[in-house]
Amino acid sequence: MSDDGFIETAGLSKVYAFGEVEVAALRDVTLSIPRGRLVGITGASGSGKSTLMNLLGGLDTPSAGTIRVDGRLISDLNKRELALYRRDTIGMIFQSFNLVGAYTALENVAFPLLFAGVAKKRRRERAAEILKAVGLEGRMHHRPTELSGGEQQRVAIARALVNEPRILLADEPTGNLDSKTSRQIMEILADLNRSRGLTLIMISHEQALLREFSNEVISLQDGAVVTREALR
Q: In this structure, are residues 88 and 167 in contact, taking their beta carbons and an 8 Å threshold?
């Protein structure tokens, strides 16, 4: 498969059942995202943004349609295969930092490597490398309560990168941050996209930042794609 279709969805739909009521969270979404792109996703609350991210990240399975990543049919994987896909291919960042309060920044970042069977010494070395890459070399041994919101989000970014994923999914990563810190986080993510060739898909309500940093912005409404705008 060419890089023009690194991530591909075809007729992707997700329906949730609440008793006898069915709610279509995503409707017939067909996308092709090249490798190494920074793609912004926007839309009102309930438009299907997080559902799309959860499907791409292997956290949920579609009701209909397919997802392919680098030619591999992700939508048909079983639970064990999805877990390996999440571990080896996907990094995820959320609006809430989801850090373990009792752990230092270094320990939070190193934690995912435990499940990958990486030796303790290498886990700490790798975590330190990534924390340095996001500008936190001086804060590695601080716990979350000793860090600012922006610093906590940098730890969360480092944790998402520690397994060297090929795809980074960010769901409102600046939602809990002030405007200055939001820009700093966006600059870090954009630099990671450029310098590491990461394919980055990001949900955000901050239209100005999305348009400034993204290669393309996709707008969702009522679970369907309504516009795709190529920016650069």
A: no
Residue type, 83: A
The kind and range of the H/E element at 81 are helix 79-89
Long-range contacts of 24-31 (CB under 8 A, 24+ apart): 24/223, 25/51, 25/223, 26/51, 26/52, 26/55, 26/62, 26/223, 26/224, 27/222, 27/223, 27/224, 28/65, 28/224, 29/65, 29/223, 29/224, 29/225, 30/65, 30/225, 31/7, 31/218, 31/225
pTM (whole model) above 0.70: yes
- The model's pLDDT over 56-84, given as tens digits with 9 standing for 90+, comes to 999 999 999 999 999 999 988 999 999 99
CATH classification of 35-61+77-230 is 3.40.50.300, yes or no?
yes
